[in-house]
């Protein structure tokens, strides 16, 4: 909206031409989302405290200190993040771009699923939400619609192919079956971030790092000159997704202000599921699906730790980790929460650098 308003006067006021640039609007999205949460965050937290009473139910099978230290903390903080992202995107993005609407559809759709799950947990005072099968069905349906949209608006055969990093010309063509691949990426990313969200500030910083990385990727692959120079696959129109990535970074920074240890609010499934879904959708849109497994490698490690733990216990009756996901394993080993969180942030940052190196190493 601001994009159209400001550029409509650019013929009279030359300085307003700056808002035609994607970099300017991405910066505007970062600041808008950040300021939105700074202004409205305390009110949202106060409202959620009143509505939720005892706050988010704490798992009794998790680390025992959580029952004492985290009891009463409100959840659904993802509402803050989603509000900031939505407002910033609507104000600064080109709303004629279908990629923008596709990613917003996944973000808000997954957010709605997470919100309903959080709502059931709070109202029932239970760690169990609604049926996992129903939840997955809803996730697959939302992701399927978005991926089908990306395949339809994208250039063929690229939109139905899987690009392989480190190789400039390698494409694995799936045709209509790419719908399955894309959906698995989006749903997998959403649930991987959801699994990672277990300590104060743990998930939000890696999400911001991944969003910033994909903001750069979107900007480059959506620009013919830059993509040609770096020998990347040019994906027409995806540069606009840098604005959404900027909004994710800004909203994440604002949320971290309130989520830093000791957290005043948890993002809940409302936030973690929607943020992961957004990253997955952006990765599919810009044709860097495999790179997401590198940039978001921390989320992969956390998810794999759960899978390994379950398989090992069912097959041998023994556990590989003291507790899963991985961050709880280190808690059980005696690591302090801030130590785990900061070290995991460092891992996320290093993995993002490795993932971004694929842009040049071809």
Total count of helical runs of at least 4 residues: 15
The class by helix and strand makeup works out as mainly alpha
Integer count of domains: 1
Distance between the termini: 39 Å
The overall pLDDT, averaged over residues, is 87
Q: Which range best describes the helical content: under 10%, 10-25%, 25-40%, 40-55%, 55-70% or over 70%?
A: 55-70%
Poorly predicted regions are none
| Rg over C-alpha atoms, rounded to the nearest angstrom | 20 Å
Structure description:
This protein is mostly helical. The chain has one domain (2-357). The protein is 67% helix and 2% strand. It contains 15 helices and two strands. Helix 5 (98-124) runs antiparallel to helix 6 and helix 7 packs antiparallel against helix 11. The longest helix is centred in the N-terminal third of the chain and has 31 residues, at 22-52. The protein is globular. The protein starts with a helix and ends in a 5-residue tail after the last helix. The mean pLDDT is 87.
Topology diagram in text:
Blueprint lengths: L1 H7 L13 H31 L11 H6 L8 H15 L5 H27 L7 H22 L7 E3 L7 E3 L4 H19 L7 H18 L2 H7 L10 H19 L8 H18 L3 H7 L1 H20 L9 H7 L4 H21 L5
Antiparallel strand pairs: 1-2
Compact description:
With about 350 residues, this protein is mainly α.
């Amino acid at each position: 909206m601001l994009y159209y308003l400001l550029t409509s006067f650019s013929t009279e006021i030359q300085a307003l031409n700056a808002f035609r640039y994607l970099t300017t609007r991405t910066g505007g999205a970062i600041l808008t989302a950040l300021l939105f949460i700074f202004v409205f965050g305390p009110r949202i937290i106060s409202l959620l405290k009143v509505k939720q009473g005892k706050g988010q139910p704490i798992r009794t099978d998790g680390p025992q200190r959580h029952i004492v230290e985290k009891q009463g903390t409100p959840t659904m903080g993802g509402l803050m993040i989603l509000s900031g992202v939505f407002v910033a995107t609507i104000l600064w993005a080109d709303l004629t771009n279908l990629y923008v609407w596709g990613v917003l559809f996944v973000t808000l759709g997954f957010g709605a699923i997470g919100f309903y799950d959080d709502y059931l947990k709070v109202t029932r005072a239970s760690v169990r939400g609604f049926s996992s099968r129903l939840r997955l069905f809803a996730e697959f349906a939302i992701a399927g619609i978005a991926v089908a949209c990306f395949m339809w608006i994208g250039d063929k055969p690229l939109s139905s192919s899987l690009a392989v990093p480190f190789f400039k010309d390698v494409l694995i063509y799936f045709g209509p079956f790419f719908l399955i691949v894309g959906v698995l990426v989006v749903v997998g990313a959403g649930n991987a971030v959801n699994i990672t969200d277990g300590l104060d500030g743990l998930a939000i910083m890696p999400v911001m790092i991944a969003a910033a990385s994909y903001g750069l990727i979107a900007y480059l692959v959506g620009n013919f000159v830059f993509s040609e120079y770096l020998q990347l696959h040019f994906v027409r129109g995806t540069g606009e997704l840098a604005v959404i990535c900027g909004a994710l970074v800004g909203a994440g920074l604002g949320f971290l202000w309130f989520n830093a240890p000791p957290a005043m609010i948890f993002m809940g499934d409302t936030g973690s599921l929607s943020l992961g879904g957004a990253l997955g959708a952006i990765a599919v849109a810009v044709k860097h699906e495999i790179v997401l497994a590198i940039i978001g490698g921390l989320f992969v490690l956390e998810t794999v730790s759960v899978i390994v733990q379950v398989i090992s216990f069912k097959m041998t009756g023994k556990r590989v980790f003291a507790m899963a996901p991985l961050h709880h394993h280190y808690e059980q080993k005696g690591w302090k929460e801030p130590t785990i969180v900061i070290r995991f942030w460092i891992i996320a940052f290093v993995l993002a650098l490795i993932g971004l190196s694929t842009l040049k190493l071809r």
